[in-house]
Amino acid sequence: MLLIMLKWIVLVHFFQGCSGQESFVSEFHMEEVTGKAILSLIDNTLTVSLNVSKSFEDTRIEIHPLWMDYDTADKCSDQQLGTSWFWPTRPSTIQSIRANTLVTVTFSDLNISTVEGQSIVLRSSNKTICATIQKEGEYKTALARFTRGSVSGYVYFRQAAASSAGSTRVVTDLYSRDSISSLRWKITGAVSNCASITSRQAALDLLIYNPNNASDGVLCTPQSNSKQCAVGNLSGRLGDVSVGQSKGYSDNDLPLTGETNIGNKLLVVYETDGSAYACAIIKIFKVRNALVKFSHDGVTGTASFSQNSPFDPTVVQINFQGLNNNSKGFHIHSWPTPTKITPDQDLCGAAVTSGHFNPYNKNVNSPIYPQPDASTDDMYEVGDLSSKYGTLANLQSLNGTYTDWNLPLFGANSIIGRSLVIHHNDPAGSRWVCANVRPLYPVVTAKAIFKYPVIGQILFMQEMEEPDTETSTFIKLDYNDGRAGTQGHLWKIYSHPVASSLSISPQSCNSTGTNYDPFESLLQRPKTLNIPSVGNADVTSKFFFTDLILPLSGSQSIIGRSLVIMNLDNTTFLSCTNIELMKDLALYAQLSSKDIKGIVYFTQTSGFGAQETTINYNIAGLQTGYSVKIFELPPSDSHSCDNLGPVFNPFNITSSISMSDDNYQVGNIARFFSSKQSPAGNLNLPLAGVTSILGRSLAVVNSDGAVVACTRIENYLNSSLDQQITAVSRFTGDVNGTILMYQTLYADGTMSDTTILVDLKNLSGTLTNYANKCSKQNLLQCEVGDQAKKVGAYDLGGGRRLYTDIDLPLSGPFTVQGRAMVVHDQEHGAPRLGCADIIPNSDLFITIFIKTPPSLDKRELAKTIAKAVGANNEDVVVENVASVNEKTELKVYFTGQQGLILASEFAKFIADKDNYKKLSPYQPIPINSSYHKVPSIIVIGILFVSKTLMLS
């Protein structure tokens, strides 16, 4: 330990800066104490001037080598800050520090060059506080995270943003499974990614980053002038990096700004004999921004959050309108709020958004829990914003800016993806309105949808093209087969997807390969899951956590792999599903009438729960008095705008009593076009789910209420390989009419929601209505075919109706094409009134004739044809057209992305009479009376159309 000389002086006045010297500042904001320390280091003498809001007795000052991280439980411990190098062997305790009184202490004979980037600790018998020592102003921070190879951990870099020539503080925390205490380290710009380093020798041979052409070599040592060293020669300038313990280094030639900055360069650690090495890219933190936007029940406004790095406070700007003295508390809650589906849906309740976000388990019922706006941020729950900033009681509105030291946007305790709830000012503090904390940067979202015996979803969200950043994960699971709830299931990501040709039974999980762990079990997430029985309100089935190592992009991405849940024996599979990309939603409506032309785009980024829809438009011909609205039904086949139904209003809104989005009918979007400003945001315009506007009509209405132009709202296709699939059920008995189904099959194999247009009549003249746990809010509890419960009942004879189904596949192994659509008796009756096959509404088919069999199994014949042409079973659909004179006419449809090729293969197959018996017992026959002639094959049509609209 160092022996230092101490003298301390107590001065009763406010801070005054010292001219002509460089100073550092530490801001205290913890343990109910606020204040500052000004530190000056001149000629090995450190002067510390303190002024804090609370009195301390028998206090000693410590300097620790690592900076402070507010997002930790024990912020001032040696484990977090490193062991103090500063405290002398002889006593030198300050007897007392009085509140709001300046104390100046001088330490001399110190053999140090800087204290920047380290931390100062005030330790007394009853309280300890700490803060980072840094310059005034903003800092740049960078991170190299090691997740692959023989070394794991992180290296942080931090430098004042004002000058690239200033000192950079480096903090390392590396560890290895081998017995390694130190490694060589260097920065290289020779290659752009770690995948290019394929061997230990390659790591050894990489050129050191040297933008200033320094001489480097043997003259570069920790004792030499840093200008003699290449920027990337860290071992030469700082010595080898410590492994197995956190350590801090100071470097005067390691820029995080300017043309020679080390951002996006590679940091390589290695042993000179090549026995160990690891690589990581140095990523400079971008400012992270998030937003909560309200337009609910008369409350409008935003809460914005901004944080420069994990080691900086979060700046919060709040602008709430429409509070009208009705609110009090507002908090970040643990779970996101969902998309609204039904008029009376609880969007903010405890079972929906959970309680306050409270990762450090603060007890709000404790007598020592501080009153609102009466203490430092760390004394409150992370999510208890109204206690930190003051409540909303007796306010009409709020407009304020706050600095929060305990509200992370980075790391495991990030608030991004969670929700903000405003409470009523009533004795119970009931929940009023809520909205989600949305990232204001591009994200990639993935989903794992379970359907049997576990149902539910696991959602993942991460910054786009940043696989080393945190991934937010939201889990909601149930059983759907009647079994009792179970707890403690292991869950894992496996290397291969579930084989598409298999069923969704647990046996299908055998195709998923092995546990996918490229980071060698460094993943930090809950190890087990709880799964309740159907209808159980047990909220332990929900999780929301932020995983530090779970990539959704790059070579280690989990998208395209599978997620498995194990039985309680931990050796057999309970359920599994594939991890798929969730696309950003994009719809468009193209107007092309004589007088009104243009296009409207509706877009929505992927994410958790309720999302905002952005409206962009370019329309010519909108006259004064015209308005734009969305109607319930699409134009008819003749493109007539005469029968569009009412304005789309799934939540039964009768009048706009306020200016918030949810008090307008969903289809009443006229307000977004009156200002002629584009784009505009709407929090009540669903692009997916049972209340989606997809497939409905966008119309221009004149001042008399007459529709003057209309068009169908369709999915925007990004690729020429995206396909629009259409299926139809044609009813010809007492129940007469059609059911049309539309779905987009994307190039990657994922599918959109399915829109269903029903137009049926009961020729008997009776109007009927088809009125378990299945509901619109819990669609995965439904049988795929239970349309009435999933999307709503239909009145026979009630005219055209349009529905949206999130789980009605028209392609893939579980397609409904080739099955039957059945209409049942009224009031959920069992008797069947009518049925019709679900067949492709397509010209891509081949007609064949067979001898009328005693019974025709169309699905079995489709499988036989699929086998004959090498197709998947789901890509072939057989329609029974008619049976006359012992001959049955069949249409064979080919679907999927290879439909045209399959139809051509079948045409060639059927042209060879030697192939007939391969279709037994349904062998083709000639059209003429003799069954032994070469059959006449009528190819009615082979047509493949792909339409792509380019976004301007």
Automatic annotation (TrEMBL):
Pfam families: Sod_Cu. One of its GO terms (biological process) is superoxide metabolic process. GO terms for molecular function: metal ion binding. Keywords: Signal. Residues 299-426 form the Superoxide dismutase copper/zinc binding domain. The keyword Iron does not apply. It comes from the Eukaryota. Residues 1-20 form the signal peptide. InterPro entries: Cu-only_SOD, SOD-like_Cu/Zn_dom_sf, SOD_Cu_Zn_dom. The keyword Transmembrane does not apply. This is Uncharacterized protein LOC106052162 isoform X2. It comes from Biomphalaria glabrata (Bloodfluke planorb). The gene is LOC106052162.
